[in-house]
Amino acid sequence: MTSHHKHPTYVRNARIIRTATNQRLKSGIAVQCIGCGGPITPEQRFDVGHRIDASRGGSHDLDNLGPQHRRENRSAGGRIGALHTNAQSRRARGLPTW
Ligand SMILES: [Zn+2]
Questions:
Q1: Residue 7 contacts by C-beta under 8 Å, 6 or more apart in sequence?
Q2: From start to end residue, where is composition biased (Basic and acidic residues) (predicted)?
Q3: In 47, 72, 74, 91, which residue has its Cα 20 to 30 A from 33's Cα atom?
Q4: Distance 7 CA to ligand 1 centre (A)
Q5: Is 76 helix (H, G, I), strand (E, B) or coil?
């Protein structure tokens, strides 16, 4: 969690997007991830991310924010966690874990 996530505009707009995304998922409406462009499914966790990162001049306005798979939107710690989770699911499907 970086400091810009405490920005009042981000906090307010992230709540709007989070609520709208949860409502869509609950209604079975597809939600597109702004990170990879793939669908976010109800069992996947998501964060509200920036289309253009705030560190590169992106705003906290609604049109620059959107739902993004949680594993894509975390710093190094999150990526390590995602790798671990991916390895677990590959193992569960009998696939190699590299
Ligand atoms: Zn994604």
A1: 54, 60
A2: 51-74
A3: 91
A4: 23
A5: helix
